[in-house]
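@channel sequence for tomorrow's demo:
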Amino acid sequence: MVKILCASDTHGIADVGKLATSAIRRKADVLVVAGDIEPAYKAISPEGYFYGVFMDAVRKLMHHCIEVVVVPGNHDFFLNRMMADDPKKRLIGNLHILVDRSETVCGLKFYGTPWCPYINGRWCYEEDDENLFDRFMAMPKGIDVLVSHSPPYGKWTYIDEKWDVSTQYDRRYWEHFGSMSLGKAIIDKKPKLVVCGHIHSGDHIPSRLGRSVVVNASLVNERYVEAYRPAEIMFGEDIKFREGARKWTIPS
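structure tokens (generated this afternoon):
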């Protein structure tokens, strides 16, 4: 059994130090962060934040033998530049930054992809969804955990629904912003677990897409306020998530 704590979209708002403490307290084997680490809309140096606040949390986890799997998101310009120079760059032994590649961590095969459907041309890792199909289909079969910044399109799940802040309580105005190409690749490649984020207001209850369990792990809402807890997953013969203080549930 491997215990995975899942988070995404911290945006320099959700406290990564507390996230590390939570991983230690819950005796996680792996912390997954599915993108958008860089501070959003704050006058904070992205490089300073990453090498300071974020790496302090990673080093803290290293002392407790907890691995960290990271995929950049569309806000992560600094990571985008850093990984462009060396796609397999290793900063510290327990940190695995995955950009369209796989690594085995705690006996599980992880694959990471940062890409998301086109927004407005101002962000990194964005591309027309139809052009993303080949990127997503390049992932190998036999993946245990797919870490994707983008969620799959809501034809299959509700984890990619986004509300406008003025109409948040009226679901008639919610829209799906996930990737149709990613959904097709998940159905074809059959990863056992998919961890994603990007759409902050999507359904945070793990659900199924084909044979895969999919969880939206974003920690902030559409107002960029910390609103969700990291998802706790137990990876064994069955994939279970912690519901409440003690109950472990198999996603339906």
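heads up for whoever presents: The longest helix spans residues 46-62.
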